Amino acid sequence: MAETKMAVASAVIVPEVEEQPTESLESGKRRNSSFSEESSKRPRLNSETGRDRNDTSHPSTGPARLSDRRKSGQLEERKRGQRLFGALLGTLSQSSSSTAQKRRTDIEKKQQAKLRLQAEEHEAQKKRRLESLLTVRRKEQKKYDKQSVSHYFVPLTDKSG
Q1: Distance (Å, rounded) from C-alpha 114 to C-alpha 109?
Q2: In sequence order, what DSSP letters do the residues of 59-125 get, joined into one string?
Q3: What is the sign, positive or negative, of the torsion defined by CA atoms of 57, 62, 68, 72?
Q4: How far apart are CA 42 and CA 14, in angstroms?
Q5: What radius of gyration do the chain's Cα atoms show?
Q6: Which residues pair with 52 in a beta bridge?
Q7: What is the mean pLDDT of residues 19-48?
Q8: How many beta carbons lie within 10 A of that of residue 32, not counting itself?
Q9: How many angstroms separate the CA atoms of 18 and 32, rounded?
Q10: Do 78 and 69 meet the contact criterion of CB atoms below 8 Å apart?
Q11: Cβ contacts of 59 within 8 Å, gap of 6 or more
């Protein structure tokens, strides 16, 4: 490569593009990066054991780890649901002492009192009607009894004459 100085219009230097060999395109969908991964990057150290990340003796990936992730996700979701439910119950159990709530309770009490008075009046009217019916029935019964008795007993003086 020949080093040539180029004028840079910004603070960013664009690397020179090298032609990619055709064998570097393995799948045809993506092109390989222009830098080799192993030479440009330091190997990462695992925080638990201090070993390289490329070490195959540590089972960091696999079906066991995926199932652990799913279980922990489900557990977190369940805990979140419990927290939300607890917050909802707490909100519902609070008695709001706002003026609107006080007005509502006052209105409800007045309506209950009106209903009670109406029910009492209705019961009183019912009793009055029943009493008047009973008095009329008693009077009618007395008249009926007098008429039925008078038919059976005919005065003797009228027949013997």
Answers
A1: 9
A2: --SSHHHHHHHHHHHHHHHHHHHHHHHHHHHHHHHSPP--HHHHHHHHHHHHHHHHHHHHHHHHHHH
A3: positive
A4: 23
A5: 51
A6: 45
A7: 60
A8: 14
A9: 12
A10: no
A11: 65
Q: Model confidence over 111-150: pLDDT tens digits?
A: 999 999 999 999 999 999 999 999 999 999 999 988 888 7
Give the CA distances from residue 18 to residues 1, 15, 35, in Å, rounded to whole numbers and listed in that order: 10, 9, 11
CB 18 within 8 A of CB 24: no
Task: Judge contact between 54 and 43, C-beta under 8 A.
Answer: yes
Rounded Cα–Cα distance for residues 102 and 95 (Å): 11
DSSP conformational letter for 137: H
